[in-house]
From TrEMBL:
<protein>
    <submittedName>
        <fullName>DNA-binding response regulator</fullName>
    </submittedName>
</protein>
<dbReference type="InterPro" id="IPR011006">
    <property type="entry name" value="CheY-like_superfamily"/>
</dbReference>
<keyword id="KW-0597">Phosphoprotein</keyword>
<dbReference type="InterPro" id="IPR036388">
    <property type="entry name" value="WH-like_DNA-bd_sf"/>
</dbReference>
<dbReference type="InterPro" id="IPR039420">
    <property type="entry name" value="WalR-like"/>
</dbReference>
<feature type="DNA-binding region" description="OmpR/PhoB-type">
    <location>
        <begin position="125"/>
        <end position="223"/>
    </location>
</feature>
<feature type="modified residue" description="4-aspartylphosphate">
    <location>
        <position position="51"/>
    </location>
</feature>
<dbReference type="InterPro" id="IPR001867">
    <property type="entry name" value="OmpR/PhoB-type_DNA-bd"/>
</dbReference>
<feature type="domain" description="Response regulatory">
    <location>
        <begin position="2"/>
        <end position="116"/>
    </location>
</feature>
<dbReference type="Pfam" id="PF00072">
    <property type="entry name" value="Response_reg"/>
</dbReference>
<dbReference type="InterPro" id="IPR001789">
    <property type="entry name" value="Sig_transdc_resp-reg_receiver"/>
</dbReference>
<keyword id="KW-0238">DNA-binding</keyword>
<feature type="domain" description="OmpR/PhoB-type">
    <location>
        <begin position="125"/>
        <end position="223"/>
    </location>
</feature>
<dbReference type="Pfam" id="PF00486">
    <property type="entry name" value="Trans_reg_C"/>
</dbReference>
<dbReference type="GO" id="GO:0003677">
    <property type="term" value="F:DNA binding"/>
</dbReference>
Length: 225
């Protein structure tokens, strides 16, 4: 899983990062509330571990902002505050689970696995619009400024992933796992070559490219134009 950890206690943060990494998870670890808000908003994670008391912005406020922005990443909240009111406050803000410090790592790992298995209950979205680009899953078509854009199936799938995560980075590994279903050599250029062809079609006769290359990481479709 791709896991975001927001924890300002250096020893605990390093322990979690190391222990979850040993289990095979890909971990991004931040120490402040503002960094947690940023990374949780622009990157895609299967689950997040969020300390309630963080410098800059507390975990409850981060959760409220994520949920208001329709970011549905499952969140396990960590806290030294074990009172009922504290737990209720965190859950009401949008936390999916709550764990009081100190805790046993095996319990935390089991709770994360359970959160990752839990389906998100929401109506399936069949149409996405970002700027002047619209993608319709039912009709399998793409339009830009009302003009039809003919894409091959994998080009369509690449654009779909970008639009599902509009404004957030989609890594090459995520494209490979979602679209090709294989663990390719990370040095392969299969994603880049398909994306290049898709962008050429999407941008033909347009001055602005809505897809941004995040060098060494992946791609995102911009929402600010």
């Amino acid at each position: 899983m791709r896991i975001l950890i927001a924890e300002d206690d250096d020893d605990l943060a390093e322990f979690l990062e190391h222990s979850l990494g040993e289990l095979g998870h890909v971990v991004t670890c931040v120490r402040s509330g503002l960094d947690a808000l940023h990374f949780g908003s622009v990157e895609v994670f299967e689950v997040a571990i969020l300390d309630r008391m963080l410098p800059g912005m507390d975990g409850v406020e981060i959760l409220k902002r994520w949920r208001a922005a329709d970011i549905v990443t499952p969140v396990l909240m960590l806290t030294a505050l074990g009172g009922i009111a504290d737990r209720v406050g965190g859950l009401n803000a949008g936390a999916d689970d709550y764990l009081v410090k100190p805790f046993v790592f095996s319990e935390l790992a089991a709770r994360l696995a359970a959160l990752a298995r839990r389906p998100t209950i929401r109506e399936p979205q069949t149409q996405f619009t970002v700027g002047d680009v619209t993608l319709d899953l039912l009709d399998r078509n793409v339009k830009r400024a009302g003009r039809d854009i003919a894409l091959q199936p994998r080009e369509f799938a690449l654009l779909e992933q970008l639009m599902r995560h509009a404004g957030r980075i989609v890594t090459r590994t995520m494209f490979l796992e979602t679209i090709w279903g294989y663990h390719f050599d990370p040095k392969t250029n299969i994603v880049d070559s398909h994306l290049s062809r898709m962008r050429a079609k999407l941008n033909f006769d347009f001055d602005f490219d809505p897809i941004e290359t995040v060098r060494g990481v992946g791609y995102r479709i911009r929402t600010d134009a």
